Amino acid sequence: MLEAKTVLVIGLDPTLIDWSQPGYAPGMTTEKVFAGIKSSEELLTGLGFEVQTCLTDFGETAETVVKSQLELKPWDCVLIGAGVRTVPSNFILFEKLVNVVHVNASQAKMCFNQLPADIGESVKRWV
Fold first, then answer.
1. pLDDT, tens digit, for every residue of 54-91?
2. What is the DSSP string of the chain?
3. Which of 1, 24, 48, 62 has its CA 20 to 30 A from that of 82?
4. In the CATH hierarchy, which top-level class contains the domain 6-126?
């Protein structure tokens, strides 16, 4: 039996987000993000992936938290969520996290989503 491919999904802790700030998807809420993450985890698990979600703050501890997760095992794929990538005020955080992944999981494919609900499709493109 083949080992399950491992996927680390990195995103902002939705409880820390001010959804009224520019750049976040209109109508998005903490509850919708958590529901999307749960749905994607279930989908990926159902497809045979071993998935772990890693939620971070806006940078105070984000690099350390992600590095700790990356050191737990070899990851086949790392996804950095849209809330980190697409919101202009999070640009430096995104850059830092890409470099943490590059240094600590250089073998991993990287993928990116647009919404919590499309994490599964994003991973399937690369793994």
1. 999 999 999 999 999 999 999 999 999 999 999 999 99
2. -PPPPEEEEEEE-GGG--TTSTTSPTT--HHHHHHHHHHHHHHHHHTT-EEEEEEE-SSSSHHHHHHHHHTTS--SEEEE-HHHHSSGGGHHHHHHHHHHHHHH-TTSEEEE-SSGGGHHHHHHHH-
3. 48
4. alpha beta
